[in-house]
Amino acid sequence: MLVLPAVDIRGGRAVRLIQGERHRERVYDDDPVAAARRWIAAGARWLHVVDLDGAFGGRPGNPDAVGRILAASEVPVQVGGGVRDLETIERLLDAGAARVILGTAAVSAPDLLRAACARFGDRIAAAVDARDGRVVTEGWTAATSLTATEAAAQVVDAGVRRIVYTDTRRDGMLVGLDLMPLRDLLAAAQVPVIVAGGVTSAEDVRRLLSLEPAGLEGAIVGRALYEGAVRLEDLLVAAAGVDA
């Protein structure tokens, strides 16, 4: 199972937002490239990079920082945040992104999602971000009537071959996982899923391993790594199914 350290960028710095709320920001590094390099040196095989200003504003907000990470990274990088058109997708892929994540656009612009999947195939993923079972968009500030499982079925129907699912209530809270909604989403999606929100310990990763046969592909980890609650090396050992 993959473990993807998160590098969230806001105002050009590496930060984490507790439950995605802008007023609950924690700054961890003035240079997000340094954060990316730190996780690669610790053994990361993928990185998860989000342009938070882009997610809130609907257009790329940190193109320089994202571009520098892509240029410096020795491992594949998936990028999301403010991706709302084919031109932005193509620009990110040309800059070196291995995969581009559509969030708000995946829900609000199904024709764009369908066109992106037709054109770029497996290099497109859809973010399904949920709060209390309902999908949220626009940087998690706008609620929708869609359930997470409905959204998963919808994006797969549009051609998506991979979903990034976030339980926004748990994101950045260091409280562990809620596997029940994840199991429901895996059953509805029938494509590989990467989970975020609440992954705090090696034990959390070991619990996720039981869902690999159902399609769970990886876990994104942020605050727990930045604040030293767990070491990336220990998460990688757990993800390999090896006892530490």
Describe what this molecule looks like in 3D.
By secondary structure, this protein is of the alpha/beta class. The protein has helices at residues 32-41, 52-57, 63-72, 86-95, 104-108, 110-120, 148-157, 179-189, 202-209, 223-226, 232-239, and strands at 2-10, 13-17, 25-29, 47-51, 77-80, 99-102, 124-131, 134-137, 142-147, 163-167, 193-196, 216-221. Helix 1 packs parallel to helix 3. The radius of gyration is 16 Å and the shape is globular. It starts with a strand and ends in a 5-residue tail after the last helix.
Compute the CA-based radius of gyration: 16 Å
Mean of pLDDT? 94
Major β-sheet strand ordering = 1-4-5-6-7-10-11-12
Task: Profile the largest sheet.
Answer: 8 strands, parallel, barrel
List unreliable stretches of 5+ residues: none
β-strand percent reads 25-35%
Count every beta strand, where a strand is a DSSP E run of 2 or more residues: 12
Distance between the termini: 16 Å
| Helix fraction bin | 25-40%
N to C succession of SSEs = EEEHEHHEHEHHEEEHEHEHEHH
How many separate helices? 11
Q: What is the global morphology?
A: globular
Structural class: alpha/beta
Give the topology, please.
Elements: E1 2-10, E2 13-17, E3 25-29, H1 32-41, E4 47-51, H2 52-57, H3 63-72, E5 77-80, H4 86-95, E6 99-102, H5 104-108, H6 110-120, E7 124-131, E8 134-137, E9 142-147, H7 148-157, E10 163-167, H8 179-189, E11 193-196, H9 202-209, E12 216-221, H10 223-226, H11 232-239
Parallel strand pairs: 1-4, 1-12, 4-5, 5-6, 6-7, 7-10, 10-11, 11-12
Antiparallel strand pairs: 1-2, 2-3, 7-8, 8-9
Helix pairs in contact: 1-3, 7-8, 9-11
